[in-house]
Input
Amino acid sequence: MAVRPDRSVASGTIAWTQVRDEIRARGLRWTAQRRRILEVLEATRGHVTGSELVERCRERDPATTPSTVYRTLDVLEELGYLSHSHSAAGREEFHVMPEAEHAHLQCRVCGRTWELDADEAESVVDPVARSHGFAADLGHLTILGRCAVCVSAEAAEPRLPA
Ligand SMILES: [Zn+2]
Ligand SMILES: [Zn+2]
Ligand SMILES: [Zn+2]
Output
């Protein structure tokens, strides 16, 4: 399992001044745009896509450059403040300061997602670890399929013959 610096704080707050120092330590300039990205992230909880973050930054400053937002997200992920997962469309979703590692279930029909806690996800990938010696990255695991509601809706409404 990937070892990530533990930055989870019980209150769910991040020391943003520390983030600024860490970004500078990476040799990146501390700009108004980067500050704005952090402001947007500070107001964000749960799952959010990169394009949603770009949109929120643009609401604050229409001159926001998407490449700057994405580059900053990459750096913040390297620093352990964010993690990403993938949705059915392959698009990346970011978790702001994930409190616990978890995998995802996503329904292809209704698009809803559920979180699978580490223990449950572990039991899914355990046989793979045993047969292939493969250590899965749980936070990166998204299982696509159909949820219980969509499965029973399909059973109740048989498709018309083509
Ligand atoms: Zn990925
Ligand atoms: Zn569904
Ligand atoms: Zn999640």
About this structure: Residues 107, 109-110, 112, 146-147, 149-150 surround zinc ion (ligand 2) (CB under 6 Å). The CA atoms of residues 38 and 59 lie 14 Å apart. The chain has two domains: 16-96, 102-156.
